[in-house]
Amino acid sequence: MDFQLDQETRDSLEALKVWGRDVVRPVGLEADRQARPIPVDDPYFDLCLERGDGRTHWRPEGGAKSDKRRSTLSRLLLSEEFAYWDRAVMIANPGPGLPELSVIGGGTEEQKERFLLPFVNPDRPRWACFAMTEPGAGSDAAAIATKAQKDGDGWILNGAKCFIGSASRSDWILVQATVDITKGRAAQRAFFVEQGVEGLGPFKVEKKMGLKAYESASFSLENVRVPAANLLGGEDRYEKKAGFKTAMSTFNAGRPVIAANAVGIARAALDEMIRFARQHDLLGDNRVRDRIEAISRKVRMARLVCLRAGQLADEQRPNIVEASMSKALAAEVAQEATSHGLELIGIAGGRGDHLIEKLYRDAKAMDIVEGTGQIQRMIIARSLVGLPR
Ligand SMILES: Cc1cc2nc3c(=O)[nH]c(=O)nc-3n(C[C@H](O)[C@H](O)[C@H](O)COP(=O)(O)OP(=O)(O)OC[C@H]3O[C@@H](n4cnc5c(N)ncnc54)[C@H](O)[C@@H]3O)c2cc1C
After folding, report:
1. Do the domain assignments include residue 222?
2. Structural domain of residue 367, as residue ranges?
3. For the segment 155-189, what is each residue's pLDDT rounded down to a tens digit?
4. Is the pLDDT of residue 7 over 60?
5. Is the pLDDT of residue 330 over 70?
6. What is the pLDDT averaged over residues 265-285?
7. How far is it, in rounded angstroms, from Cα 358 to Cα 29?
8. I need a labelling partner for 191 at 20 to 30 A (CA). Which of 5, 16, 75, 113 fits?
9. Alpha-carbon span 125 to 118, nearest angstrom
10. φ, ψ of residue 218 in degrees (nearest 5)
């Protein structure tokens, strides 16, 4: 395995270190202290736009060339570095987010123009999000019950979604729904639901144990009418049963990113442990050094598996097992690192004003989002013995 980095990635990593230390970490700590997402009109988001964040790399045909799309490897390293400073702030950042790849890969040209063009050179911070999870369908994404009913040349949507990142501030939400709940995966479709449309909402921002800087919201869809043009990819795609596959490929691409985030959180906990041990003259204690060694070894292992998943993606080779392995492993390492860190700092962790205590609360979600640890282990085991996933 050869993980050579180009100069552009090295420069971006250096710049992100400075941005992370000076801006991201303080913004994340403040949001955590105030136990609320960063407000939509916070000057932080304007700084993001000034920095060139919040944009899509998609370009209209004949438009100015986009910057070369970064390799997966490079994006994973940048995701790790961002999460090192604050994973929730990373997710709070404006941009087309999780559904971007689905739209680029599965949307019609007209949909790309309508829904991605505003993100090419945004006039203000803009968000978009992907809504899969429901109160009755999390891990078993094939069980979603939000109903899509044909109505003339459009569709009527009814259902409820929960824990959807940035939902209330998104320009549009890519909503996963079913045309026939008895037909499982093959009956799923994804629809663009635009903010402000009648029947969408109200949005309720969830109370979370960690990752407070970004909004996770629940909402309902009550007789929401969307035109036929808002069905992702048009009806033809679904004759090829692409609806569920598109949703799953979004998650497959996202798993190594979550793994990279978890590695970033674990690294932050490790650095904080070392800083605390040095400050309190504990580095002479063999038990303390043992912990530091164990966490450091595991962080490196998790990073290697994560980068391997990214490298396979760059070579356009199957990486489902590695993607799941990286997420299962890195989320465990992040939880172990933050838990050891909390033990090391002792009573200071119980007071709730120490970075490690925050990282401990943030780390758990790395095990839950985009497929829990158990689900990743199931995918790995079934793949290893040749069963369908
Ligand atoms: C901070 C946060 C942000 C999120 N953001 C989004 C978002 O933007 N968009 C979105 O659509 N969703 C989002 N989610 C939802 C997330 O994807 C789900 O929470 C996740 O898929 C798990 O679903 P669940 O919570 O319903 O748990 P359940 O599926 O009810 O699972 C409960 C427990 O049972 C275990 N389990 C379930 N099935 C099996 C099985 N077959 N074998 C063994 N064990 C099993 C699970 O591992 C878990 O431990 C977010 C969640 C969180 C916490």
Report:
1. no
2. 243-384
3. 999 999 999 999 999 999 999 999 999 988 889 99
4. yes
5. yes
6. 96
7. 8
8. 75
9. 10
10. -105, 155
SS3 280: coil
pLDDT at 252 over 90: no
Q: Is the CB of 66 under 6 A from ligand 1?
A: no
Do residues 303 and 333 touch, judged by C-beta distance below 8 A?
A: no
What separation in Å is there between the alpha carbon of 22 and the centre of ligand 1?
Answer: 33
**Residues 102/253, Cβ–Cβ less than 8 Å:** no
Cβ(374) – ligand 1 distance below 6 Å: yes
State the distance from the centre of ligand 1 to the C-alpha of 65, rounded, in angstroms: 38
Q: Cβ(211) to ligand 1 under 6 A? A: yes
Output the residue whose Cα is nearest ligand 1's atom 18. Answer: 138
Please indicate, yes or no, if residue 57 is contained in any of the structural domains: no
Atom in ligand 1 nearest the alpha carbon of residue 165: 8
- The domain spanning residue 258 has which CATH number? 1.20.140.10
Residue 35 lies in a domain: no
Instruction: Identify residue 152 by its one-letter amino acid code.
Output: G
> The pTM is what?
0.94
Out of 250, 372, 377, mutate this one to test ligand 1's pocket (max ligand atoms within 8 Å of CB): namely 372
Q: What does the block give as tokens for 153? A: 């040349």
Work out whether strand 170-178 and strand 127-131 pair parallel, antiparallel, or are unpaired: parallel
Among the residue ranges 101-115, 131-145, 186-200, 238-252, the one predicted with the least confidence is: 238-252
> Is 154 a residue whose pLDDT tops 80?
yes
CB 309 within 8 A of CB 326: yes
Q: How many domains does the chain have?
A: 1
**pLDDT given at position 348:** 78
Ligand 1 centre from 135 Cα, in Å?
Answer: 10
Q: Is residue 96 part of a domain?
A: no
